[in-house]
Amino acid sequence: MDHIVTVQDAVTAFAPWMEPTDAELDAIDGEMPVILADVDLLDAHIATLDRTPSELDDRRIRRARRRALAARVALVNRAADAAGGAA
């Protein structure tokens, strides 16, 4: 019988004591507006995968793209303010 060592490594890699730290959770919370905006943009694109986008679909995609970009700019500006500079 051959033992597969990598399976054991994969199982123990997600042990319960390996939870995210408070700093990691804070970083995720800080990036949540960007994540949600990207999800909205993906939803807009997915809705048009099986059909030709209508004018309404195009507007929804453009609006979602602008929100995603605005969320990214806000995140970069917050990071720059925290670092003491301006972006």
List keywords for this structure.
mainly alpha; 87 residues
What does it look like?
It contains 3 helices and no strands. The chain has helices spanning 5-12, 22-46, 55-83. Helix 2 packs antiparallel against helix 3 (55-83). It is flat, with a radius of gyration of 20 Å. It starts with a helix and ends with a helix. The relative contact order is 0.10.
Class by SSE composition: mainly alpha
Biggest beta sheet summary: none
Straight-line distance between termini: 60 Å
The helix/strand series, from N terminus to C terminus, equals HHH
What is the overall silhouette? flat
Radius of gyration: 20 Å
| Poorly predicted parts | none
Strand content: under 5%
Helical content class = over 70%
Mean pLDDT: 86
Tell me the total number of β-strands. 0
Count of helical stretches: 3
Quick recap of the structure?
The protein has three helices and no strands. It has helices spanning 5-12, 22-46, 55-83.
Write the layout of secondary structure elements.
Elements: H1 5-12, H2 22-46, H3 55-83
Helix pairs in contact: 2-3
